[in-house]
Design goal:
8-stranded mixed beta sheet; 6 helices; disordered N terminus
């Protein structure tokens, strides 16, 4: 099965009671403004590094597996880019050098009748998709991949949930010499699946919605937190997952990797 997946997902002031910690560098490997705003609203303040992964031709056994595969590829691409830079080229972390770097990769696909649908590539595709979806029920799958790199360096190895390993690092971009080191790498993968009940918008409403351009930017051609929310009757499961990142799932993955959620509050 082949499908284009989606990247869909302001800054907040510190909230009373939040613990300001500086031991971790948090990186979101996604260009999705919705994912970024969801994390910020939850008290996290990640920097954004877009993976640049070519999603065309990526195949998996199911829509859920496709979302997980693409999330893994994106997170590992960002982690590899971070570790390839020599010290002088690396962006300063928000915490001390002894902290960890946490890379989060996500990707979403909509499953309808066992078929995976990503972001519509044209207005015609978005229009056809909505005429297919209206009055039906689908499942929005979001794959999550978390990679924890000790001391901000290292490279991910393998693709197993909850894996632990080691990796060597060295200079790559400029040819400058860098002393190789061996660091711990921990990674975990999770899939969030939320049932979505679509309303039955009229042809006129579909045409007007497609004309806004919003459906062409998101997974399955709809949003829960935008103009498309009026055309969704309800969801079963985590609504954040439909927006593009499941906060409860992410918290659980981080906990399994030894990272406390509240230590990431800013």
């Amino acid at each position: 099965m082949t499908a284009r997946a989606i990247d869909r997902a302001g800054e907040t002031t510190p909230r009373p009671g939040h613990r300001l910690t500086t031991g971790h560098r948090l990186v979101l490997g996604s260009a999705s403004p919705a994912r970024l705003s969801t994390l910020r609203a939850a008290g996290l303040d990640p920097e954004v590094i877009v993976s640049g992964v070519d999603e065309d031709g990526v195949e998996a056994a199911s829509p859920a597996a496709l979302a997980a595969t693409l999330a893994r590829l994106k997170a590992e691409a960002v982690a590899a880019r971070l570790t390839a830079r020599p010290p002088a080229a690396r962006r300063p972390t928000k915490g001390p050098a002894t902290g960890t770097t946490i890379v989060i990769g996500c990707d979403s696909v909509l499953e309808l009748d066992g078929i995976a649908y990503g972001r519509p590539r044209s207005a015609e595709a978005a229009r056809a998709g909505w005429r297919r979806m209206r009055g039906t029920t689908g499942i929005l799958h979001t794959g999550h991949r978390v990679i924890v790199l000790s001391a901000g360096s290292g490279a991910p190895s393998g693709d197993h949930t909850g894996e632990t390993g080691t990796a060597g690092t060295g200079a790559a971009d400029t040819g400058a010499a860098e002393t190789a080191s061996t660091v711990e790498v921990r990674a975990a993968t999770g899939i969030g699946s939320t049932v979505v009940h679509f309303a039955s918008p009229t042809d006129e409403e579909i045409d007007a919605y497609v004309a806004t351009g919003e459906p062409q930017r998101v997974a399955g051609g709809f949003t829960l937190d935008g103009l498309g929310g009026a055309f969704v009757d309800g969801v079963e499961g985590d609504p954040h997952n439909v927006v593009g990142i499941s906060l409860p799932l992410l918290r659980g993955l981080l906990h399994g990797l030894g990272i406390s959620w509240i230590d990431l509050w800013q």
